[in-house]
Amino acid sequence: MASPAPLRDCQAWKDAGLPLSTASNEACKLFDATLTQYVKWTNDKSLGGIEGCLSKLKAADPNFAMGHAISNGLVLIGTGSSVRLDRELDLAVKTMVDVAQAQPLTQREQLHVSAVETFAKGNFSRACELWEQILWDHPTDMLALKFSHDAYFYLGYQEQMRDSVARIYPFWTPSIPLSSYVKGIYSFGLMETNFYDKAEKLAKEALSINPTDAWSAHTIAHIHEMKAEIKDGLEFMQHSETHWKDCDMLACHNYWHWALYLIEKGDYEAALTIYDNHVLPSLKASGAMLDVVDSCSMLYRLQMEGVSVGERWQDILPVTQQHSRDHILLFNDAHFLMASLGARDPQTTQEILTTLQDASEAPGENCQHLLAREVGLPLCQALVEAESGSPDRVVELLLPIRYRILQLGGSNAQRDVFNQLLIHGALNCTSGIHKNVARSLLMERDALKPNSPLTQRLIRKAAAVHLLQ
Fold first, then answer.
1. What pTM, to 2 d.p., does this model score?
2. d(Cα 422, Cα 417) in Å, to the nearest integer?
3. pLDDT tens digits, 179-223
4. How far apart are the C-alpha atoms of 331 and 154, rounded to whole Å?
5. What is the pLDDT of residues 290-324, one digit of tens each?
6. Which of 155, 170, 85 is nearest to 120 (CA)?
7. I need a labelling partner for 190 at 20 to 30 A (CA). Which of 21, 84, 116, 205 fits?
């Protein structure tokens, strides 16, 4: 395993072609420490954790523009707060802009500040354009690479997520700090665009350099899921667990992938054990959006399989309720709705729907609010109709938008919960036309994922109601 590189001071950043406008070596090193933890998906105690580093960074140089940019960017990219509802964050973004305007920054730094400000307004695609402008001239700017990668993910821009890394990958020589992690970032974009062999090769290269690279392990988990390689996936998670379980920002998500294999197998009790021992505790400890959507998605998938999840929705609801009015990502909104429906809380359900409708009527430049009327609201309404026992309505709402759900972001594996919702709706329909839809969807699914036990269970269910004759 490669030994950790020393944290970079002012001169080191300058030597790397990425000068930072501060005279504080301490601020430069803390910026590097924060960036390193973001890339590694972990709060490293030896570095002081991300919050600890950011607090010290601000003290080291309150006017360090890139310190403000990484601090605000990380809050925003976490999608748990918005300037629309969080006055403290709104003030922090405005302060960042004021600090930047009061001093002579490099063009690269000016673009970073503009990108974060633009992302804060909900204009994710424009923010990505600004980060790409940085990468054209500075291909080893890891912050621009990571922020754009995450924003592309939220937009469902799979090819851009892949190609953005492909363009800069040759510049990342082994001597550059964090270079092995670029392999994992690239491998994820390749995997999402179905280049499974190349994605797996790169992820394994990254893991051979650093076995604790939780993101590369996560990519391999995705590959086994997409290819329905359940046995191989379970073995990989078991053998790699010791390396990624301490990456606190991603460990819960990797356990979620482990549980997906068990749900595929039909081993529901084992999946619930992972939920109870790893997923829920992580959610309660972090409140992070990734942990929230994983928890909701997992319980919802189990319910569609006919599994009783008991009172587990009640544990999630207090967390999701706090975000009912956020409307930062439509993908998140759909999962918050799963929780309020599962916990049988009609008031919160209505609050999510009503405030999302309001946001869609005055979207401004917010990409999610612009998409809400045509995609987000029909998806949310389909979840409500499924809960109320109206499967024909579920199909009527979902079928016209099934190929547009990609625009809500998330991974192929994550969005499969909505594919399953449509199939279950079609299987339970009373309309003969919609039953034929179920047959067609299952034939399609079986062609793309022929070894999936879950697909085979759905096919057997269809056969039982005479859909496949």
1. 0.95
2. 9
3. 999 999 999 999 999 999 999 999 999 999 999 999 999 999 999
4. 8
5. 999 999 999 999 999 999 999 999 999 999 999 99
6. 85
7. 116
Helix axes 179-192, 142-155, angle to 10 degrees: 20
Spatial CA neighbour of 65 closest among 10, 112, 135: 112
Does residue 361 sit in helix, strand or coil? helix
Mean pLDDT in the chain?
A: 95
Amino acid at 105: L
247 near 212, Cβ under 8 Å? yes
On whether the CB atoms of residues 192 and 164 are closer than 8 A, the answer is: no
DSSP secondary structure of 104-122: ---HHHHHHHHHHHHHHTT
**Residues 298, 300, 305, 311, CA torsion sign:** positive
Closest residue by Cα to residue 89 from 65, 101, 112, 71: 71
- Per-residue pLDDT tens digits for 4-62: 678 999 999 999 999 999 999 999 999 999 999 999 999 998 888 999 999 999 999 99
Owner of token pair 């299987």: 427
Q: Three-class SS of residue 429?
A: coil
> What's the one-letter identity of residue 324?
S
**Tokens in use for 31?**
């910026």
The average pLDDT across 359-363 equals: 94
Closest CA relative to residue 246, chosen from 386, 419, 37: 37
Q: For tokens 């460990």, name the residue.
A: 251
**CB burial of residue 231 (10 Å; 0-12, 13-18, 19+):** exposed
Which amino acid appears at position 442 of this protein?
L
The number of helices, as runs of H, and strands, as runs of E, in the chain is 26, 0
SS3 state at 205: helix
Could you tell me the CA-to-CA distances from 456 to 437, 440, 463 in Å, in that order? Answer: 17, 14, 10
- Radius of gyration of the chain from Cα atoms? 22
Q: Please give the share of the chain, as a percent, with pLDDT higher than 70.
A: 98
